[in-house]
Amino acid sequence: MIRFSPIPTEVVRAYQAGGPDANGQTPERHLSDGMGVPCRHCLQQVPAGRAYLILAHRPFPAPQPYAEIGPIFLCADACAAGGGAELPEILSAPDYIVRGYGTDDRIVYGTGAVIPRDAIAARAQELLADPAIAYVHVRSARNNCFQCRVDRA
């Protein structure tokens, strides 16, 4: 069994309170047009007319050569953490990069591939069956933006 996991709530609340992002900058605030603004916490699209944040995020516990930093969107106001066994709403593109990471938070070479949307869960489960894989990232196939993490349930 697998679980799609959002960015941790305590991290999100710090950003929503105006705390610095991974580049030390204050998150930018914008209004959603309702199209293509996937919140990495509730794992849903930010509705039209609602405020959202754009910021640089590093979904790893500490800087190191494999700890990629990239742009993400978050609801500007508090939202409930999403996640669970079902594919999140934010994963609506035709395909995504699915890649495994070890307990050292580094890429496990040979695990990354562009996977059709409907095969993400099966690929993540396959990767997590390997004890060398601690967790999986789902990332945009076009821009490599972090979408969510997949963990063993």
Supply database-style keywords.
mainly beta, first zn-finger domain of poly(adp-ribose) polymerase-1, five-stranded antiparallel β-sheet, 8 strands, 11% helix
The secondary-structure element order is EHEEEEEHEE
User: Which architecture of the largest domain does the CATH hierarchy give at level 2?
Assistant: 2-Layer Sandwich
Helix content: 10-25%
How would you sum up the global shape?
A: globular
Number of strands: 8
Overall average residue pLDDT: 97
Tally of structural domains: 2
Commentary on this structure:
With 153 residues, this protein is mainly beta. The chain folds into two domains: 2-75, first zn-finger domain of poly(adp-ribose) polymerase-1; 95-152, no CATH class. The chain has helices at 9-16, 120-128; strands at residues 2-5, 28-31, 51-57, 70-75, 95-101, 113-116, 135-140, 146-152. It starts with a strand and ends with a strand. The model has no long low-confidence stretch (mean pLDDT 97). It comes from Fuscovulum blasticum DSM 2131. This is DUF1203 domain-containing protein.
Produce the secondary structure layout:
Layout lengths: L1 E4 L3 H8 L11 E4 L19 E7 L12 E6 L19 E7 L11 E4 L3 H9 L6 E6 L5 E7 L1
Antiparallel strand pairs: 1-8, 2-3, 3-4, 5-6, 5-7, 7-8
Organism: Fuscovulum blasticum DSM 2131
InterPro entries: DUF1203
Protein name: DUF1203 domain-containing protein
Give a quick precis of the structure.
11% of the residues lie in helices and 29% in strands.
